[in-house]
Write a structure and sequence with these properties.
The chain is built from ten helices and twelve strands. The protein has about 500 residues and is of the alpha+beta class. The protein has a five-stranded antiparallel β-sheet, sandwiched between helices. The longest helix is centred in the middle third of the chain and has 58 residues. It is rod-shaped and about 165 Å long.
Length: about 500
């Protein structure tokens, strides 16, 4: 599990915000550089090809227009004319081919060319201005030009003679120039991307700096430093975010401070009230004890009233003592007075002093000695057993064991158990599982005091339900390395 979590952290770090910003910046740079290079390459390529193409077409057309040949066509004279035209080729040498009916003549070795397409032949015959094509044959680019030869019949009129001349020119130089342009565009884009990495890193740093400060401030607030703030720089969106964070942190700090002050006042009020009630309650308890002793000589109604007053006064005294105890926990004034005690004997004394011996079953191994506060451990056991007897069903079982250097105390009853919606609140102060019950036999603070006492020992307490029903409270207190169990010999 730990290695999987570490792998996820490494993947998140590898594709963090900084990396994504740099990659986005480089992607924009790549697209921009690629688009610019492609457009530049296309325009330069068209310019190179168009320049050579226009020069060749214009030159060939001028030669054809000034050609002086008569009809019928003489093959020997026509071949000499083709040689002359081939010698005036520009911008590169070309081979001139002539087609007249079935007559085929050229200035080269072969009378016909495989580069000239049927489409060019048809266009050259039907168009008075001729036509041209760029053809690739065998990996070599060619420019093919077709021009019809006209015979003048008047000052402003001419008639097609049926003779068509073709010029075939290699464009290898243009191909090399275009390849050089492509290489230059590619080689120029790579250094540009390397240069673009520098502003990408600078931009990522300027964006991530306030984000890192925000993360640090949030962590500080999470650890309790509510006065953490972020320095606001500039007037952009990140500055607005920092300003909003500072305002929210200020409001949170004020709200928490008000809540802490209100909580402190409430704790002080409970503590003051408890202290003020303690003295008069002591006198009332003394009076009720005397009245209890004389209740047997009173009439039944008066005796019943006396006993009711005595019971309610006792409950009020318990509530006051619990409030004083919980106020000491709130004020961090509670202390442990530890001693090495026999835990088994301590549990037996707790049950005996409260006359629970016949109602509670025990599973207590002999010789369990642990350093703890005996008074507070007595309160823990008494509260859990009393709670089980009041809200569960008999028999109640108390088990004691040592597991993994922990003293484990379990208190289980035979009642219906704790409802699932109640479990998260079982240790809350004054929490009532039954909303219809306006008051209970206890103070409503017993389980809260139990939890605080267990925490004071560095332990934990949890509530749950047993596999066969009934509530189960489990207390775990560390042994702190002291001798834990001494097995009793039979």
């Amino acid at each position: 599990m730990t290695s999987a979590r570490a792998g996820r952290v490494r993947r998140i770090a590898a594709f963090g915000l900084r990396t994504r910003l740099v990659l986005a910046f480089l992607l924009v740079a790549v697209v921009s550089a690629g688009t610019t290079a492609a457009l530049t390459y296309r325009e330069a390529r068209n310019a190179v090809l168009a320049s050579s193409q226009d020069t060749a077409v214009v030159s060939f057309r001028e030669q054809v227009e000034t050609l002086g040949t008569g009809l019928p066509v003489d093959p020997v004279m026509l071949r000499e004319i083709l040689f002359v035209m081939a010698g005036k080729a520009k911008p590169h040498p070309w081979v001139v081919f002539a087609e007249y009916g079935s007559l085929r003549v050229s200035s080269g070795e072969n009378p016909t060319s495989t580069v000239i397409t049927p489409e060019l032949r048809r266009t050259a015959l039907t168009s008075s201005h001729g036509s041209f094509q760029r053809v690739v044959s065998g990996g070599t680019p060619y420019l093919t030009i077709g021009m019809p030869v006209s015979v003048r019949t008047g000052a402003d009129s001419s008639l097609s003679s049926g003779l068509v001349l073709f010029a075939v020119m290699r464009m290898t130089d243009e191909q090399e120039n275009v390849g050089a342009l492509l290489t230059a565009a590619r080689d120029g884009a790579l250094p540009g991307l390397a240069v673009a990495l520098v502003p990408a890193l600078l931009a990522a740093r300027s964006v991530l700096r306030p984000v890192r400060e925000l993360r640090g401030a949030a962590r500080s607030m999470g650890s309790g430093r509510l006065d953490a703030r972020i320095e606001v720089r500039g007037h952009d969106e990140l500055a607005d975010l920092a300003r909003t964070f500072n305002e929210s942190a200020g409001e949170l700090e004020r709200s928490v401070d008000e809540l802490q002050q209100a909580e402190a006042r409430a704790r002080r009020f409970a503590s003051d009230v408890s202290h003020e009630l303690r003295t008069p309650l002591a006198g009332m308890l003394a009076v009720t004890e005397v009245l209890d002793e004389d209740a047997g000589g009173l009439d039944p109604d008066t005796a019943r009233a006396v006993r009711l007053i005595s019971a309610e006064t006792g409950k009020l005294a318990v509530l006051v003592e619990d409030l004083m105890e919980i106020s000491r926990f709130d004020a961090r004034a509670a202390e442990l007075n530890t001693d090495e005690v026999d835990v088994t004997e301590t549990v037996r004394k707790t049950l005996h002093h409260r006359h629970w011996g016949g109602r509670v079953r025990t599973e207590l191994p002999d010789g369990v000695r642990v350093r703890l506060d005996p008074r507070r451990f007595d309160i823990v056991v008494a509260n859990l057993v009393g709670n089980a007897l009041r809200h569960g069903a008999e028999p109640v079982t108390v088990r004691l064991s040592v597991v993994d250097d922990m003293l484990v105390t379990e208190v289980a009853d035979s009642g219906p158990g704790i409802r699932p919606e109640v479990l998260p609140h079982i240790f809350d102060r004054f929490y009532k599982a039954d909303a219809a019950r306006t008051r209970s036999a206890g103070s409503g603070l017993g389980l809260a005091i139990t939890q605080e006492n267990v925490r004071l020992h560095g332990g934990t307490v949890r509530a749950g339900n047993g596999p066969h029903g009934g509530a189960v409270f489990t207390v775990e207190i560390p042994l702190h390395g002291l001798p834990a169990v001494e097995e009793a010999t039979a």
